[in-house]
Amino acid sequence: MTIISIDGVHKSFGDNRVLRGIDLVVKEGESLIVAGRSGSGKSVLLKCILGLVRIDQGSIRFHGEPLTDRKRTEFLEHFGMLFQGGALFDSLPVWQNVAFRLLRGKQKRPPGEARAVAIDKLGRVGLEPDIADLYPAELSGGMQKRVSLARAIAADPSVIFFDEPTTGLDPVMADVINDLIRGIVDELGATAVTITHDISSVRAIGDQIAMIHGGTIGWYGPVADMDRSGNPHMEKFLGRHRRVDTQAQVPRNGSDRPSAPDRDG
Ligand SMILES: Nc1ncnc2c1ncn2[C@@H]1O[C@H](COP(=O)(O)OP(=O)(O)OP(=O)(O)O)[C@@H](O)[C@H]1O
Ligand SMILES: [Mg+2]
Predict the structure, then answer these.
(1) How far is it, in rounded angstroms, from Cα 155 to Cα 103?
(2) Does residue 258 lie within any of the structural domains?
(3) What range does the domain containing 91 cover?
(4) How far apart are CA 9 and CA 216, in angstroms?
(5) CB atoms inside a 10 Å sphere around CB 213
(6) Domains of the chain: total
(7) 116: CA distance to ligand 2 center in Å?
(8) Which of 156, 182, 211 finishes a domain?
(9) Which of 104, 118, 202, 216 could be bridged to 99 by S-S, CB 3.0 to 4.6 A?
(10) How remote is the CA of residue 43 from the centroid of ligand 1, in Å?
(11) Ligand 1 atom nearest residue 53's Cα
(12) Per-residue model confidence as pLDDT tens for the chain (265 residues)
């Protein structure tokens, strides 16, 4: 069953025609990857779905109905999000970050109950109850990412978006996060949309992959088929990341990303 359908979506900023007719469906219970080079419009597409930017043309539907402001509110109630960089609230302890949506608004619960849910969700991402009262600044980067994951699933969402979930993590922690995300999707039966540059995330998390190129979907298909897509943009995406992996193994190379990842697209 289709949860989100995107038809002929266009979005420009001045002369910059970022999205030029995006057609894409997100099906219930699947894990969809949105890939594409930097600046190709992945985040803009996400913002269009969330209603943070208004589309110029086309339609976005949720369960077959146009995402009007009212429908979007309904959509957001069933929605969880892992923001790039975690985006935890520095001034709130870990448990209140995780339980953020359970402490206010429509899903508000008594604080004791919200805290119990937070501790349960922390457990799901491999964190002990004793970090519940710490502040984000007291945690390592990988732990912060896990707390963000716990927050994304706190209200038992049916649709979860992950924006660059492994960016900035070392390869070992990236694998841990990828496995957690895949586990969350499988366990919750949730629908996941993951924006990523990271080819190991694509393989670990994704069922389907949509590659944005030139403002449209340049290639779409099962992750299992992407290595033999025969599509030049997909080949470039895979090839570029093989080069990144090689570079990362060279000692004293300070960066695990090429200095100009976009120029070769
Ligand atoms: N609010 C905005 N106003 C003007 N231009 C914007 C705005 N948001 C995005 N853009 C432009 O849209 C294009 C696509 O940006 P977007 O953030 O979607 O890229 P991306 O694919 O997510 O890249 P990255 O992988 O680096 O995150 C860029 O050229 C960007 O400058
Ligand atoms: Mg982006």
Answers:
(1) 11
(2) no
(3) 87-156
(4) 9
(5) 20
(6) 2
(7) 34
(8) 156
(9) 118
(10) 6
(11) 1
(12) 899 999 999 999 999 999 999 999 999 999 999 998 889 999 899 989 888 899 999 999 988 888 887 888 888 888 888 877 668 888 999 999 999 988 888 888 999 999 999 999 999 888 899 999 999 999 988 888 889 989 988 888 889 999 888 887 788 888 888 988 898 888 888 899 999 988 889 999 999 999 999 999 999 999 999 999 888 888 888 885 444 444 444 444 334 343 444 434 3
